[in-house]
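Thread: quick sanity check before group meeting

JM: Hey all, I'm pulling together slides for Thursday and realized we never actually wrote out the predicted structure for the chain we discussed last week. Dropping the sequence here so it's in one place. If anyone has concerns about the input, flag it before I start.
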Amino acid sequence: MFAAYAARIDRDQPLSGLELGERPAPEERPGWTTVNVKAASLNHHDLWSLRGVGIGEESLPMILGCDAAGTDADGNEVVLHSVIGQTGHGVGPKEKPSILTERYQGTFAEQVTVPTWNVLPKPKELSFAEAACLPTAWLTAYRMLFTNAGVRPGDSVLVQGAGGGVATAAIVLGAAAGLRVFATSRDEAKRKRAEELGAEAAFPSGERLPQRVDAVIETVGAATWSHSVKSLRPGGSLVISGATSGYHPERTELNRIFFLELKVVGSTMGSKEELASLLSFCAAKGIRPVIDSTLPLDRAREGFEKMAEGDLFGKIVLTV
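JM (edit): ok, ran it. Output follows.
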């Protein structure tokens, strides 16, 4: 079957290890389900895999891709939950949970196989492309907002770095849930788009907000960390799920964190139950993932290049 896969690891030039071509179709396994992929979406996780983060040379070649929507053997339309082994279903009792492609072949292919427990029904209201955007970036944003930040309707939230998949999802979901959403971006066009998606206001990166917020959704990392801490009200929560600009901020702002009793919460992906709630939320409220562009699988390299350059707003989807 045709697939996009990591053939080599290169920390400095990750795309040099990306290849497109034929790979073996998945073999049947007891307790697992093979899905015919209709659409799959890109995540920064795929770029990190090409750099060797979460994967070693011994696992290559590895088909990339965490997210997918498609059909099972009976023709049912389904969405995949990307965390394998979260509750032990389909794997050994001592195996630690992993994100798809860290241990098992991914979704950028004509077929993928996962534990049957990881397969959820796709709401009829969502297209395959829309549903394929949800299991990583949108689920991450959902958990950050409603589980780890614990915000409620009327609370205020700052979303750093409008344009990325998680940040875009947080803006849309937060606005739909009745939050006061502020956003930042270095790019004027992205700030305008954030406001069109429901942000109350969008500001240049680092600019002082009109008020301190209840929570900050942080995925940028070093470049925005100090601003995130300074933007919180006393007792507020900073929830972080990524650091695309680096892991080592120049200023940690530890004095503010302890003096104002701020909460710093790490967040990674989400549970199957949260994904089911997210799917239901999107279907019931007419929420649709923001899709930057859709490409056929054989043009996957273009999608990777666009994501690596940061020249996107929303998700890039590959269709099969």
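AS: nice. The first strand starts at residue 2 and ends at 6. The two ends are 11 Å apart (CA to CA).
JM: adding both to the slides.
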